[in-house]
Design a protein that fits this description.
By secondary structure, the protein is of the alpha/beta class. Helix content is about 35%, strand content about 20%. It folds into three domains: about 5-170, Cytidine Deaminase, domain 2; about 175-265 and about 325-385, AICAR transformylase, duplication domain (Cytidine Deaminase, domain 2), CATH 3.40.140; about 270-315, no CATH class. The protein has helices at about 35-55, 80-85, 95-105, 110-115, 125-135, 145-155, 210-225, 250-265, 270-275, 285-295, 300, 320-325, 345-350, 365-375, and strands at about 5, 15-20, 30, 60-65, 70-75, 115-120, 135-140, 160-165, 175-180, 185-190, 230-235, 240-245, 335, 355-360, 380-385. A hairpin with a 2-residue loop joins strand 4 and strand 5.
Length: about 400
């Protein structure tokens, strides 16, 4: 198949629309549903991300994509009891490594992952399909599907769930093009290999970056390669816990990603874990309610006459002081930035979310200020010398 006609482009008024190969066959097969223009953008970016994560770590990887940026990305490490609960998989028994990777990717920012497009590095197994079947999602791309897993996925969305199989042996042209306003842009593909060598130039007083931190930094930087710039990514324990994408200001990226990382950790607070939800409340509504409960707008779900819609009894407020005390326990977080930090304020904000390791290109005229701020908090920071913009 050289080309595939699509219903429309980014918007319904943008017709005609298709994907096609100038030379050769398309490296994909649509096994179910009718993926759209944005679905394919998410699918191909997501596939590149998980393929690189698997190559860098040797572990199965998964990504949850929305609007051409990842909401979450992770590798297949086992979940602990608290993680199983906050990702709504505590009723599913032991999960396969691939299913664990997707539970982590989806669970990092469940609000943003609602209606995601999924990318898997490995053949989709039954465990992963069962997890996906009960989530709100638009589609999936993977190098293959176990027969039972494929049948489970085909049953989603009244049979319209988009299922794409990609040829894992496909190698794209080293030069890529893009048309904007009738004008063609051309550039070499970003084939940068991200490995330990990228983190060798440690510029701070604290020069200790342990192996797990290097893995987390690699996950951060690979994630950033496929995140709309400007972007910053916080990672802990093999998964992105906060991604700030598409911001014009670096500090806004750092704040956005940091706030998401904070929410990820706050979901583990006993007051949040033990919210007395009514049985009829679904996962998506629980996620929305939890998000409001943890915010400064908590009275939107705790006011008399309102809390009764969600809870069997009125929960106690999670105070600002309690939140800060809980967040102060978050530590050993790794942070990657796709371009240099121009000011030390980025480090100040990162520190408040437990960041202890940073990888960024360096090259700002204020590098000395950024390094000094890291030294104040005993943060280890390396300069990669490589920018990772993605548009």
């Amino acid at each position: 198949m050289k080309e595939l006609e699509l219903k429309y482009g980014c918007n319904p008024n943008q017709k005609p629309s298709r994907i096609y190969m100038k030379d050769g066959e398309l490296p994909i097969e649509v096994l179910n549903g009718k993926p759209g223009y944005i679905n394919f953008l998410d699918a191909f970016n997501g596939w590149q991300l998980v393929r690189e994560l698997k190559k860098a770590t040797g572990l199965p990887a998964a990504a949850s994509f929305k609007h051409v940026s990842p909401a979450g990305a992770a590798v297949g490490l086992a979940l602990n009891e608290v993680e199983r609960k906050i990702y709504w998989v505590d009723d599913m028994g032991d999960l396969s490594p691939l299913a664990s990777a997707y539970a982590r990717a989806r669970g990092a920012d469940r609000m943003s992952s609602f209606g995601d497009f999924i990318a898997l590095s490995d053949v989709c197994d039954v465990d992963t399909a069962k997890l996906i079947k009960r989530e709100v999602s638009d589609g999936i791309i993977a190098p293959g599907y176990e027969p039972e897993a494929l049948e489970l996925l085909k049953a989603k969305k009244k049979g319209n769930y988009a299922v794409i199989q990609i040829d894992p042996a496909y190698v794209p042209n080293p030069v890529e093009t893009k048309d904007v306003y009738g004008i063609t842009f051309e550039q070499g593909r970003n084939e940068l290999v991200i490995d330990d060598a990228l983190f060798a130039n440690v510029v701070t007083e604290n020069r200790e970056i342990p192996e797990q931190a290097k893995i987390d930094l690699a996950i951060a930087m690979i994630t950033l390669k496929y995140t709309q710039s400007n972007s910053v990514c916080y990672v802990k324990g093999g998964q992105a816990i906060g991604i700030g994408a598409g911001q014009q200001s670096r500090i806004h990226c750092t704040r956005l990603a940091g706030n998401k990382a904070d929410n990820w950790f706050l979901r583990q607070n006993p007051k949040v874990l033990n919210l007395p939800f009514k049985e009829k409340i679904g996962r998506a509504d629980r996620d929305n309610t939890i998000d409001v409960y943890m915010s400064d707008d908590y009275m939107d779900v705790l006011a008399d006459g309102t809390w009764e819609n969600f809870f069997t009894e009125k929960p106690e407020v999670l105070t600002r002081e309690e939140k800060r005390a809980w967040l102060d326990q978050l530590t050993d977080v790794a942070l990657g930035s796709d371009a240099f930090f121009p000011f030390g304020d980025n480090v100040e904000r990162a520190h408040r979310s437990g960041v202890r390791y940073i990888a960024q290109p360096g090259g700002s005229i204020r590098d000395d200020n950024v390094i000094e701020t890291c030294n104040k908090y005993k943060i280890a920071m390396c300069f990669t010398g490589i920018r990772l913009f993605h548009h």
